[in-house]
Specification:
Residues 139-161 are annotated as: Disordered. Residues 150-161 have a biased composition (Basic residues). The protein is of the alpha+beta class and 161 residues long. The chain has one domain. The protein contains two helices and six strands, in the order βαββαβββ. α1 (22-35) crosses α2.
Length: 161
C-alpha cells in the first residue's frame, strides 16, 4: 500500500475494530468465495484523515481499494448493503470484471435492500422474457451459484497419411 498526495499510509483494519462491518464483510466474502474461488478474502483498510478521523474502505487482500468510504450505520441491513456495494466497486474496478455475475443472464448484479433483506439483484436480459429478479440474499450466493462448465478441448484434426 502506498500513500497518495501527501496523505498518511493506509492501514489494514483489525478484526473487531469496526464491529458494525465485521458480519457484513464476512457475508460478502462468502459470496466472493462462491463466485471467484481463486480470489483471497476482502479486507477493510483505513485512511487516516486526521488524528481522530479516518475513512474505511473495502479492499482486496493486498490493500487495493476503489470507490466510496463506508459510513457507520445503526442498521444491519444498511451496513450489509453498503459493504456489498463497496466490495463490488473494488472488485470490479481493481480486477477489471463485473462482479458478481448472474448465472442466468451472465450480467453483473447489484446490491438492493428489498423489504429489509439485502440481496443481489439482476436487471434481467435484453428480451421481454428476461425480467429483472432477485438472485440471492447477500452472503448466500453459494446456494444458487452453479459452477460454469469448463470448456472442452477439441480434438486436433489429424491428417492420415
Amino acid at each position: 500500500m502506498s500513500a497518495f498526495f501527501g496523505h498518511p499510509e493506509p492501514r489494514l483494519v483489525l478484526d473487531g475494530e469496526y464491529p458494525c462491518w465485521d458480519e457484513p464483510l464476512a457475508a460478502v466474502n462468502r459470496d466472493l468465495a462462491a463466485t471467484l474461488p481463486d480470489q483471497r478474502p476482502l479486507r477493510l483498510i483505513a485512511y487516516p484523515e486526521s488524528e481522530d478521523l479516518e475513512y474505511v474502505y473495502v479492499a482486496l487482500s493486498k490493500g487495493e481499494a476503489h470507490g466510496n468510504a463506508l459510513i457507520p450505520t445503526e442498521s444491519a441491513a444498511e451496513a450489509l448493503t453498503a459493504v456489498a456495494d463497496a466490495a463490488q466497486d473494488t472488485v470490479s474496478e481493481r480486477l477489471w470484471r463485473a462482479w458478481p455475475l448472474c448465472t442466468v443472464h451472465d450480467l453483473g448484479m447489484h446490491p438492493r435492500d428489498i423489504d429489509g433483506r439485502p440481496s443481489w439483484w439482476c436487471a434481467g436480459g435484453p428480451r421481454p422474457g428476461d425480467p429483472a429478479h432477485l438472485r440471492a440474499a447477500i452472503g448466500e450466493l453459494d446456494t444458487v451459484q452453479q459452477p460454469r462448465p469448463t470448456p472442452r478441448k477439441r480434438p486436433k484434426n489429424r491428417r492420415l497419411r
